[in-house]
Amino acid sequence: MDYILSILIFFPAIAGILGFVVDKGSAKAYGVSVAAIELLLALGLWASFDTTNPGMQFTEFSPIISQFGISYNVGVDGISLFIVIMAALITLLGIILLRDDTKNMKNMIVSLLFLEMTMVGVFLSLDAIIFYMFWELSLVPMLYIIGAWGGPDRVYAAVKFFLYTFAGSLIMLVGLLAMAYLFHLESGIWSFNLLDWYTLKLTTNQQFWLFLAFFSGFAIKVPMFPFHTWLPWAHGQAPTIGSVILAAVLLKMGTYGFVRFSLPILPDASVTFTPFIMALSLIMVIYTAMVAFAQKDMKQVIAYSSVSHMGIIMIGVFAMNAEGLGGSIFLMLSHGIVSGALFMLVGVIYERTGTKIMDEFGGLAAVMPVYATVFGVMLMASVGLPLTIGFVGEFLVLLGFYKVSAIGTILAGTTIIIGSVYMLALFKKSFFGPVRHEKNLGLKDLDRRELTALLPLVAIVVWLGVYPKPILEPIDNSVKALLVQMENHAQLESTKEAIIVSKKEVK
Amino acid sequence: MFIDPKNITMDVLNLATLMPMLIAIGGGLVILTIDLIKENIHKSLYVMLTILILFVDLGATLGLNFGPNEKGFFDVMLIDGLAILSQVLILVASVLFIPLALTSKRFHEYSYPEFFALFLFMIAGFQFMVSSDNLILIFIGLETASLSLYTLIAMHNRHNSFEAAVKYFTMGALAAGFFTMGSAVLYGISGSLELYQIAPAIQSRMGEPGMMMFLLGGAGLLLTAFAFKLSLFPFHTWAPDVYEGASAPLAGYMSVVPKIAAFVVSMRIFEMFIDLQIEWVQTMIIILSVLTMTLANLMALVQEDVKRMLAYSSISHAGFVMVAIALATEKANIGIFLYYGLFMFTNLGAFAMLWVSRHKHRVHHARYDHPYEKFSGMVKIMPMGAIVMGLFMLSLAGVPPFSVFWGKVYLMSATIDAGYTWLAIIMGLNSAIAAYYYLKLVVYMFLKEPTEQVTKETTYYNVSKPLLTILGLAVFVTVGSIFYVDPLIEYITEMIRATNFGI
Lengths: 507, 503
Prior knowledge:
The complex is a heterodimer.
Chain A: H1 4-19, H2 27-47, E1 57-65, E2 70-76, H3 78-97, H4 105-124, H5 128-137, H6 139-149, H7 154-187, H8 194-197, H9 204-221, H10 230-237, H11 240-265, H12 267-294, H13 298-317, H14 322-353, H15 364-367, H16 369-383, H17 389-402, H18 406-431, H19 448-466, H20 469-489, H21 493-504
Antiparallel strand pairs in A: 1-2
Chain B: H1 10-13, H2 19-37, H3 43-63, E1 71-72, E2 77-78, H4 81-97, H5 113-130, H6 135-154, H7 159-190, H8 195-205, H9 211-229, H10 238-245, H11 248-254, H12 257-275, H13 279-301, H14 306-327, H15 330-356, H16 378-381, H17 383-397, H18 403-417, H19 421-447, H20 456-459, H21 465-479, H22 481-497
Helix pairs in contact in B: 2-3, 2-5, 3-4, 3-5, 4-5, 4-12, 4-15, 4-22, 5-6, 5-12, 6-7, 7-8, 7-9, 7-10, 9-12, 10-11, 10-14, 11-15, 12-14, 12-15, 13-14, 13-19, 14-15, 14-18, 14-19, 15-17, 15-18, 15-21, 15-22, 17-19, 17-21, 18-19
């Protein structure tokens, strides 16, 4: 399986092209089969993955534009492995959850498969231009999914989503090109290979500007406060499957970009910018949590809570120690699972009632007990209850952050409190009390299709909440390698300090 | 270095350098003769004949010896790598363009063999223009090509086509005036019309008092002339009207071929000034290009007609590429040709899609042929057409891995290498602005419901097998660019290195 990564990337795309030929009625079954095979392939990758090796594995390299140093270069390490598996899993479950009467099912399946290619491609690319290619391409199917199947303002939301991210990433592209030029000055050859870039020592001034360029691309995608305004629009208008993939996978591209590009290539600037990023992240955590509490629309609550949790992930990334960074990568996975599931659950109730306003519901626990249970589990995981998947990541991040700033940790810790406030309020309004509308009495509980999509997620939430070791270990190995790389690479003593302190304390 | 009139031999004349142009001109005459002998021949014969002549022309061009000092015909012809490269691009674009005449509906201009003869004369003009560093021959080439082009536009035989032709003619005459005056000033300073003699002459007189005034006059007038030809701000105002009046394929052709020719001459002239360390020429070009791309983008945002939008977008792309002239580095020069080599297929494809949907009557809008509404819900009516047009739009917007992206990246990279990071950021932001209006068409095609007038009959009105073939080729080149950019860059680099301009 030497070419397993290429197969993983291009299998969905080829399947997408072939999907044009598949009959309309069988489109969903086709999509499920393809996504299932992709997931199996991803699991196969995990099975053959050497968990003790922290470096890049299964690397492939073939020059594409050798004059300009662009090559097809992919590889996987503990950081990207699980995100890829998560992306494949969420795509599969999302497709399963699609209603059979979705209009233009075939177009939907084809776009989802192309989207899957771009998602997997982003996380596996080791060449900056190839990374950028998948990064930009991911916008196109998402634009179509939001714009064609979304709510009343879908076109506005879709275009806003596209332009916002596109503008940011073009600045990032300037940064990437400048980076390649600096590498060329230093070594005399053109290269966009990340592993080459890791060896380049840049002055603090260069790092400063490059960091800003990268930041504009990644921060909009995360989305960091105050660049988050496109996200509530996109979530508000997107169909369920769009929100699920957007929250679970696409947002992770931003944080992944920070981990893969900003930290190892620009360690000094990353440390310089840490207070700034931390401040933004803390605002993001607390402010959006409060905004979430003020929402009447169930989906908006989850959208804002998702932004709030992305803030915790950012804090972990810039804690610059094994706990924080490892925790934030684990949190990326758990956030993907949990927010994906929550958006699915909102979609379920929306399909039944045609509304997402919490005041319209009430008493659903009596009418739909299974639904209420699943919702409850996911809600607990989102809040970060021990023994759920949400706890592990959040705890590690806060632990890592504590070494950087105790006060900051307390502030960030409020997210758990505010989080439980708005989540429990949501739960109370929708599931307890009297049934507000007569017609809600007749709501059907989860059917087989929905259970098939949701139960695996419940199982994962509990499994990884109780026993996260099989995933934490490979992540931890790669994260430590990354930190060592950062430390060796740093120019300033102060940077080395910021990184080294916590590395020694790693158990 | 004048040739001694007594010792002219065939070797010195090197008449082979004239072959490509003679083939085009001869071919045009053949077409006219055929019409004399037998009337009412179907246009397909002329189209195929033109393609064949262009292929012979291409072969003759590729067969030429070239080098930095490969001169011919009393030393006015200069067959360097640049000349070969640009002629190849011009001929390939022409081969792509001419089959678009074979529409299913009959259009006025193609029933005249003169159309094809003029077309070939125009190509000969462009070929003269790019393969000379003699200002007079450049001027003759420019005027031959332009006069033929005006006529081609007018032959579309609609009111706004006449308007377009006259407008273009007037503007072109103005530009020609500026060009001759600029050349006269250069002749006044240096006593020569050959660029390779002008450069050292200027250099030796640089220190003289008042010299800068003359240079300002010369360079300023020439820059104005080329700003007209390249439709740079503020001399761009003719472009949208002319594009709108011309038939869609001709508009697409105009957005590529005359610009390539004008860029080649600009490279020869302005990079000479820049190499002479005359900094304000560089500053002026940078200002012009920034204004051009930004303002054209902003204008494109508010257009209601797709063809006008594409006209403004072509202006903006020209502004983008103009940056490379100001940089005057090898990489930037490679970037120009890479950009236009890739942009050519995509843009011609986009205009060809407009041509497919061209209706004899304006069924969608009283004022415009191609309003956005015409394309609304196109994915439901002709899914392949919508996908193809969508691909072209994404490529023009610079979404990787489609063709124009590589040109953009290469030029932006050249800009950064030259130390103009801020300029690269402006270029990037402009691409983001541009994405909006390309996306607008995508939104209309994919996300809106079809209006009543949008039917297969009106959107597929003009389709035919040759059009589909050209579209298929354009899509193939646009999508598969990642696989051939490398050899393309290699070829362009080799050609650019075999040139002789500047000092």
